[in-house]
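Quick start: read one record
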Amino acid sequence: MAHDTSRNVPPTQGPELEELLIDAEADDEQVQHQPVLLKRPWLLLVGLVLVALNLRPALSSMAPLLNQVSESLGLSASAAGLLTTLPVLCLGLFAPLAPVLARRFGSERVVLGILLVLALGIAVRSAFGSTGLFLGTIMAGASIGVVGVLLPGIVKRDFPQHAGTLTGVYTMALCLGAALAAGATVPLSQHLGDSWSLGLGFWLIPALLAALIWLPQAREGHGAHHVAYRVRGLLRDPLAWQVTLYMGLQSSLAYIVFGWLPSILIGRGLTPTQAGLVLSGSVIVQLISSLAAPWLATRGKDQRIAIVGVMVLVLAGLFGCLYAPLEGLWGWAIILGLGQGGSFALALTLIVLRSKDAHVAANLSSMAQGVGYTLASLGPFAVGLVHDLTGGWEAVGWIFALVGIGAIAFGLKAGRSLHVQVVSERV
């Protein structure tokens, strides 16, 4: 059975957005007529929150300590840029493994196993010098890429009546984990004998705790039947590429902030602790706009105005943090957080709005995140390279401008009220 997905049908809006995306690969009839009876739903909910909390600390804990780590191990700015690039690259490269592993072993068992790999990667990154630093970073990034794909589907399957609400809780847990690691890693390292390795290694503890709480789910887990659909024509569709490039470019700015903002602020005179707290505060603010921006964006005829608005906030915050007097730094950090929370949430929303059905959304999501995160990984590397060549931070403003203008240009195209033009068929 095949059907064309054309561009002249108004896109889905309102509360169905998150429902559609996380239902992307599930058999709709089974989800509706064969609900899962959970023995301990509260334990699953706690487990989901703890797992989500662990999907960002491995990324955001490195930035406040990057200067200290580089000096300790003799890393150049380019090598440090590669260190900030690797986990983002792994998000794109390893995400396609998630459905393959889930079909073979079951989602719950894969989540448990990957949490243990994540903890091992954090340990390797902390304990085995420069080689372990890069190897452990790859392990951590790959783990996050796989688990991040699986959790929304588990939410939809086990909490079908509350999927939207719990997806919001899941997103907030992601931001909270990032903020905690950004703000607490430097004080932890100082408390633990002024050791950057112990400060980074601390984050394997919450990963192991999450694995322990998740263990009952792995024992009782079950695999949901999935119906395979083939979607053809996505790579030839201009709108699909516009969504993908917006996702990648706005993500590039986000991971530049994760990887380099503390170093930039330290270069301007802040202490590592102060720089980490600024990053932490900016990430916490994202909780507000990540929930508000998609709701506001679906109230108009399309999303173009919203996209321009959030990207202007992102660029204003970045340039303020880079060039403006330090007295107003917290104000610029808040503006940056509001912009980046909204830009990421809108990128996910566009995947749903530009798709006619759940199966197209699944494929567009894979394309946008796989290709997009791979593209995004170039941003942190470029910042490190420019800093290495110039010996300062002023020139990275050009990177902010070029990436931001590109995101606005492709966002204006992706934000139109259209659908990707593909053929979806059941196989």
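The first strand starts at residue 2 and ends at 5.
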